Amino acid sequence: MNRQRPKLGIVVPCYNEEPVIEETVRQLSDVLTGLMREELISQDSFLLFVNDGSSDRTWELIEEQHDRSPWVSGLKLAANVGHQNALLAGLMQAKDRADCVISIDADLQDDVRAIREFVLKYREGYEIVYGVRRKRDTDTWFKRNSALGFYKLMKKMGLKVVYNHADYRLMSRTALEHLSKFREVNLFLRGLVPLIGLKTTEVYYDRLERFAGESKYPLKKMINFALEGITSLSVEPIRFVTGSGFLCFGISLVVGIYALISKLAGNTVTGWTSLMLSVWFIGGMVLISLGLIGEYVGKIYKEVKSRPLYLIEQHLPAKGAAAVKSEKVTTYER
pTM of the prediction? Predict the structure, then answer.
């Protein structure tokens, strides 16, 4: 493994990214060529675009960019499997071909200029480098505070998560080998990667505006993603249900003693309001508890079946540095 001039792979999961593919290739190619000129990375470094079952022309554009650029490779998944599975597919495909791999979304909101700092940290001996947002000024009030609440909740659940970090990170081949040993079907990479350990550090950057297209994470999907992360890596919600059961039992004892004393004192009055509130409260708690337990049972069901996380339909390997010398290719410098 070459620390001083590593072979770098950049993995980009794509789902309906037709409006941004060409610009993403251009910017990332500029970064690669710049790092190569500085001799910070190997000439055999590459970009790997993972098409996650897109319904637009994303894959056709990846094929076009592959024909034009020696650094662009493509991975076409047989079906849409979701961002986390598509990202894992790219990481596993790249881990045997690179000394270190950086994952970044195609929308260009993560500042590509931070990649140079990632590589420098790797050269210093770090196995995992997290890209961390410096601030959230561009977010709406709701998104900023909901994200803050999410990270705090994850911490309270006992999960090792990096605050304000998404999936913009560098991982060494060693770290990726360790990640490949995690076999769970319910993936939440932001929570899994910190479990690896090894030597880690952080690089701070400013989040940019999305270059084009629409966000693939509306509110409903963000909530589902948060629930997936919590229930995939923590049993604290189940313990919360148990605690709530004991709390309700304690309250029922107090109410029972009060009702018995009132009965003996002859002060009992039929209370329709208190009865209805009790029924609705207990009924709601029971349904929530059953739903939460069902969530865990569903995850066990998925794990037991051990279905593959993704299936690869087509792979376009990068042509590499040799192609730069042997054939005329399009460059992406400004």
Answer: 0.71
